[in-house]
Amino acid sequence: MTAAVSIRTVSRLFHQFTALNEVSLEIAAGEFIVLLGPSGCGKTTLLSILGGFLLPSSGQVLIADKDMTFVPPARRPTTTMFQDYALFPHMCLRDNVGFGLRMRGMARAERYEKAFGFLDLVGLKASSAKKPHELSGGQRQRVALARALAVDPDVLLLDEPLGALDLKLRRQMQDELKAIQKRVGTTFVHVTHDQEEAMAIADRIVVMNAGRIEDVGAPAEIYMRPKSLFSAGFMGEVNFLDGKAIARDDDDVLVETPLGRLALPATAFTAGDARAGQKLSLVIRPEHFRGPAETAGSPGSLSLGEARITSSAFFGTHQRCHVAPVSSPSLSLVVHMPQTAQLADGVCVPLAVQAADIVALPAVTEA
Ligand SMILES: Nc1ncnc2c1ncn2[C@@H]1O[C@H](COP(=O)(O)OP(=O)(O)OP(=O)(O)O)[C@@H](O)[C@H]1O
């Protein structure tokens, strides 16, 4: 399969500061890629390099197999959609959407037809004679999307396009954006710092931190099988349990933890094999703890002993509890329990987890 975009060991320095540090990524044609990470991690810098607005300090960018590293924005098969999507206030929607086509010398009839087609795609064909100020924020955002797609880019670059919308509209636009991307089949590279947004729209999420790529994968893969501690902690709530690999046989690695010895399958080690003596952090999601009713004798279930509930809160689908394991009371774990369980503060419950749900990563000191 041809890569739509190939980013090869791209770095970008601002004076002495390294904003991007040897980033490499292959993006397939038609993929919806989300660059996700905290403020300042380098997402916008990478997007700007793809769009040609910034040059890399080193490395190479290929788009559709052509070297684009030093090609200016206007001569790239990319369009960038910014958060302040700057529609022309004096133009109707048809002319806003057709603007890029007019710049390319397309004849009026063909231009109008294309503009109507893209307005139709975003559900605004009936409003084509309106001006931007007559629209809601979400509608203006859809016009900006139609305008960006009308020039038929190979790759659409989106920099926090939903950032200005309120939460409800934002969630609705995420669904629409994903549906439109699937219909047009254009490669999308979308920047956000919102984990839920990334989960909702991405084919693959690229988790970035301090100028580096920490993890790449489908949303479920990033959540269930993170390949770095940063990625595990950035996507949703998580418990980290200290561990040390002490022995291994053909199937399992035996790990010493404050809650006892656990035999973990090789698949738990998403960042690579563990050697004996290695310090580890075990990643356990709150919803992966099994409550009293589910644990008894189920295959692959690892007992973590008893834990005392120190606080609990009702969350609709579950109760979110803080618990202190009896064998290691200074530890505090976050555990989701069924609402039906009797969970008064001070009550002790047996804790267990499926071996297949644990991820074991090198502890920070070893990274
Ligand atoms: N023109 C510049 N000059 C100096 N430093 C810059 C410049 N542009 C970006 N930086 C720095 O590079 C780092 C990455 O910036 P970037 O805008 O790519 O982050 P980001 O992940 O997009 O953050 P945000 O989510 O806040 O937009 C930041 O520390 C930023 O201060």
UniProtKB/TrEMBL annotation:
The keyword Transport applies. GO terms for biological process: putrescine transport. One of its GO terms (molecular function) is transmembrane transporter activity. Keywords: ATP-binding, Nucleotide-binding, Transport. Residues 5-235 form the ABC transporter domain. Pfam families: ABC_tran (PF00005), TOBE_2 (PF08402). GO terms for cellular component: ATP-binding cassette (ABC) transporter complex. InterPro entries: AAA+_ATPase (IPR003593), ABC_SmlMolc_Importer (IPR050093), ABC_transporter-like_ATP-bd (IPR003439), ABC_transporter-like_CS (IPR017871), Mo/tungstate-bd_C_term_dom (IPR008995), NA-bd_OB-fold (IPR012340), P-loop_NTPase (IPR027417), Transp-assoc_OB_typ2 (IPR013611). It comes from the Bacteria. Belongs to the ABC transporter superfamily. This is ABC transporter ATP-binding protein.
